[in-house]
């Protein structure tokens, strides 16, 4: 007999009261130990004792432990024509068992292959990529993927990252282009893997998923990606007329990426101001109305819609005056705007920070960021250890929006 009798084996050895015995046999096989000698169960239940008695055809004794001879079990199975040996029986019940030493060798090789494959990514020399890949190895993610049969997932993730940053690319389109499946980046394991890589890249550790994708030019939903504006007249399409009408009335107006895509606008202004918190725009609308300088609100990390509109504004020749909260995210987005659009930092200097800090502050979170337009700002923020939200500078910002004072100096 070379093949086990599956039905009889399940009845003989597959019951819940003998599961402990099967577990012990598997443990021995994993440790590459011989299936000889005895195994002992402490504090067995009456049902477990009866199950062993039925298996061996004799009373299982009494006491605080239950001792079972593995050769005796193998002999019962062989003589009954159920299985040729104990290993064959257990593997028929639970699946193939490999010694842990062999499993470790296989997994070590598989991890090395995954890392080598991922290292072909064009970002492989970046600190964030190396740190991300090292974390996947250290926290057991690579091992779990190997055991789940998804060794390909990290390589696919690297291919997705190769395509980033993108230019207003819908997530399903990115998924189709790289993975051949529009849903691949919305389902595990790729959804979490790619998102973790982009978070590490963008340093948006706790930001909403929409903001994380937007930071690399990927759009989750072109209707959900929006930008809030005040007094930004435009031309060229119905959207341009709506923006102009809203500006004439001094009414805040919300624009979607979909609108900016299907109805591109032309914006011709001298100066446009950018804030992070909608409270600033709300107060400007209430107190200054149509006399306020053109204002765009990012509402946190700039969305793809924000970037699309700002690009149109810059293309029209305007100078963009940009600010964010005095935290590391706000400083990072300001630095990005300076690099991307030639923006002028607005009220983003050490004196402005200290003035806001006198009113209120919360503990700074995250990794420090350099402030190349005012190197002392980053150092001062690190030394003080507090963030300052825009709300604490509203009087200053309203003065600027009403008088144009912020246009005079990038650090004023």
Descriptive account of the structure:
The strands form 4 sheets. A 6-stranded mixed sheet has the order 6-5-8-7-9-10, sandwiched between helices. A two-stranded antiparallel ribbon has the order 1-2. The C terminus is likely disordered. Helix 15 links the parallel strand 7 and strand 8. Helices cover 51% and strands 10% of the residues. It has 3 domains: 89 residues, no CATH class; 118 residues; 182 residues, Dna Topoisomerase Vi A Subunit, Chain: A, domain 2 (3-Layer(aba) Sandwich). The chain is elongated and about 100 Å long. The longest helix has 19 residues. It has 20 helices and 12 strands. The chain has 412 residues and is an alpha/beta fold.
Brief overview:
The chain has 412 residues and is α/β, with parallel strands linked by helices. It contains 20 helices and twelve strands.
Which fold name corresponds to the CATH topology of the largest domain? Dna Topoisomerase Vi A Subunit, Chain: A, domain 2
Alpha carbon gap, first and last residue: 90 Å
Query: What integer is the average pLDDT?
Result: 92
Provide the helix percentage: 40-55%
Query: In one word, what is the shape?
Result: elongated
The main sheet comes to: 6 strands, mixed
Structure class: alpha/beta
- The second-level CATH architecture of the largest domain is 3-Layer(aba) Sandwich
Computed over alpha carbons, the radius of gyration is 33 Å
Number of domains as seen in the coordinates = 3
What is the number of helices? 20
**In what range is the share of β-strand residues?**
5-15%
Which strand order spans the largest sheet, edge to edge or round the barrel? 6-5-8-7-9-10
Could you tell me the number of beta strands?
12
**The CATH top-level class label of the largest domain:** Alpha Beta
Low-confidence stretches: 405-412
């Amino acid at each position: 007999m070379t093949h086990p009798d599956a039905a009889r084996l399940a009845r003989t050895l597959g019951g819940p009261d003998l599961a402990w015995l099967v577990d012990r046999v598997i443990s021995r096989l994993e440790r590459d130990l011989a299936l000889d000698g005895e195994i002992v169960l402490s504090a067995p239940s009456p049902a477990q004792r009866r199950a062993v008695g039925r298996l061996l055809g004799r009373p299982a004794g009494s006491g605080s432990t239950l001792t079972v001879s593995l050769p005796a079990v193998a002999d019962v199975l062989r003589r009954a024509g159920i299985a040729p040996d104990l290993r064959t029986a257990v593997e028929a019940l639970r699946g193939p068992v490999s010694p842990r030493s062999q499993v470790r060798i296989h997994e070590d090789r598989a991890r090395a292959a995954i890392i080598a494959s991922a290292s072909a990514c064009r970002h492989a020399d970046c600190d964030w990529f190396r740190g991300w890949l090292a974390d996947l190895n250290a926290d057991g993610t690579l091992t779990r993927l190997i055991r789940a049969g998804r060794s390909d997932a990290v390589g696919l993730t690297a291919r997705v990252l190769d395509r980033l940053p993108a230019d207003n690319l819908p997530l399903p389109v990115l998924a189709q282009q790289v993975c051949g499946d529009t849903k691949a980046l919305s389902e595990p394991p790729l959804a979490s893997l790619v998102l973790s890589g982009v978070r590490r890249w963008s340093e948006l550790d706790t930001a909403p998923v929409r903001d994380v994708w937007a930071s690399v030019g990927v759009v989750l939903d072109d209707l959900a990606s929006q930008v809030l504006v005040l007094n930004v007249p435009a031309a060229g399409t119905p959207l341009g007329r709506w923006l102009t009408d809203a500006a004439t009335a001094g009414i805040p107006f919300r624009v979607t990426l979909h609108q900016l895509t299907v109805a591109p606008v032309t914006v011709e202004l001298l100066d446009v101001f950018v804030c992070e918190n909608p409270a600033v725009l709300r107060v400007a609308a209430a107190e200054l109305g149509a006399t306020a300088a053109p204002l765009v609100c990012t509402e946190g990390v700039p969305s793809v819609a924000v970037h699309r509109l700002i690009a149109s504004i810059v293309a029209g020749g305007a100078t963009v005056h940009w600010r964010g909260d005095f935290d590391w995210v706000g400083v990072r987005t300001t630095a990005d705007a300076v690099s991307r659009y030639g923006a002028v930092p607005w009220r983003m200097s050490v004196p402005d920070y200290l003035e806001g800090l006198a009113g209120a502050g919360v503990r700074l979170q995250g990794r420090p960021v350099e402030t190349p337009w005012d190197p002392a700002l980053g150092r001062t923020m690190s030394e003080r250890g507090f963030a300052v939200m825009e709300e604490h500078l509203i009087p200053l910002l309203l003065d600027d929006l009403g008088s144009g004072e912020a246009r005079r100096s990038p650090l004023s």
